[in-house]
Amino acid sequence: MDPILIQQLIFNLFLFVLASFVGFELISKVPPTLHTPLMSGANAISGVTLVGALLIAGADSGETGGMVTKLIGLIAIIFATINVVGGFLVTDRMLEMFKKKGS
Amino acid sequence: MDFSILIQLTYLVAISFFIVGVKRLGSPATARKGNQYAALGMLIGVAVTLLDRNILTFDWIIAGIVVGSLVGGVAARKVEMTSMPELVALFNGFGGAASALVAWGELSRVSAVGLDIFSLVTISLSVLIGAVTFTGSFIAFGKLQGFITGKPITFPGQNLFNIALIIGLLGLSGYFAVVPEDPTLFWIVMGVSLLLGILMVIPIGGADMPVVISLLNSLSGIAASFAGFVLGNQLLIVSGALVGAAGLILTNIMCKAMNRTLTNVIFGAFGGDQGGAAAGSGAIGDLTIRETSAEDAAVQCAYASKVVIVPGYGLAVAQAQHVVKEVAAILEKKGVQVKYGIHPVAGRMPGHMNVLLAEADVPYDQLYDMDQINPEFPSTDVVLIIGANDVVNPAAKTNPASPIYGMPVLNVEEAKRTIVFKRSMSPGFAGIDNELFYLENNQMFFGDAKQSLQALAGALKDLD
Description:
The complex is a heterodimer of chains A (103) and B (464). Chain A is mostly helical and 103 residues long. Helix content of chain A is 76%, strand content 0%. Chain A starts with a helix and ends in a 6-residue tail after the last helix. At the A-B interface, helix 1, helix 2, helix 3 and helix 4 of A face helix 1, helix 2, helix 3, helix 4 and helix 8 of B.
């Protein structure tokens, strides 16, 4: 395997592990009151795969199999956008209702 | 012109917004801002990606985003707060499917023979995790919605079969990376992964849904992260890992709240277990229950100094959150101190009850966790248990034969009086008889939770 590819892989693994630790730290002290919005908000963030879907759907359709690739990309964009837009909106709707006494 | 450096640096900005956003989601006062930060990060990340030189056409992208935004936006606006677990499961499934499709799309774009071994393995793994998340989430959705039975669906050798499937999938993924010329291997990986998602969730009982939803949430993050490995995209790798870790933490919290291990939840086929129900009823024998009426309950509550309300899934089913708030308001006007005691796994997803009560304008500083409310029960006059069952079952502490033995529960029986609002004597979602119903200081208020509470509110008003 190409040494540059291996280097890139190791770099990405570093990011993966470090980001996981950040995630653990961020979430471990969240009060139970916020578990549902937290989960739906995190869920919306996982729709970031939309970025990947854009790269697939925007590919050149002239190549062999180009149409198939674009079709896969289109469905991926629709699914990921539902996840992102719906997720952030519904989380906002929930959090709008959380009020302190007297406010 | 090549914008790749600009794109990379902007991704860093987007990731920072995600991290700050999730951090702010951790406190009720800043949570709404936090969610908006995360959304802004997403907007930045998506917008800058459009500058990528690999994106040559925009027609399909615009079409996809318009359709997705419409569907997601309408669903988010229309959904009832009681159906939040279903919606989150559904969104989750779409996210997982999208990640699997991205990996598949990359395979289709570059073609298998043009990819190195490592990329092929990550593609297979992304498809595996994404597909499992997709079908698993839809089964969970079906169970929550009720068109698939909430009871565990099991067959002999199920666990062994599932484990064999997982090992087989990993083996196939590796084999496909070595001989990428044969696309059938890839189709098999995809098909079996879809099947695995179904098989992993059908044996899990409805009472364990909070754990399943959290776990699937985590998997959808990991799927996005793996798709990032496939594309060499750091925004996906980092944000996916963040979500994956967050989901795992919540899964762990839910497991602890039920005194179960994750392995036990996935392989235990718990809930609606016949043997467990028999063991429970045998210990209770033919003890009697005491019924109460709206008038009687109203007098007891009106002359109490402290009332604790314990909501459960039954409250959500009956859409009774607004009436609960009305009863609480009348009591508070009479000078009664009202608190809400919420078990971590009450409802069908973590924090579900809190959202419902927030919808009914109950301030969040009136909601108490299990650890906060348990020391207060001895000084409580009346506990109103509305649609909750297993989370107040003393058998969890006293009866080692009970399937829920060892699960931390709300010690409602320490209060002077408990009133259980329930449709009938049928057992709870876990299918276990509840010893609380037969205790001396407990009364049963039979009927639909909403109607019963309306009757209680009416009786309270008549007391003036």
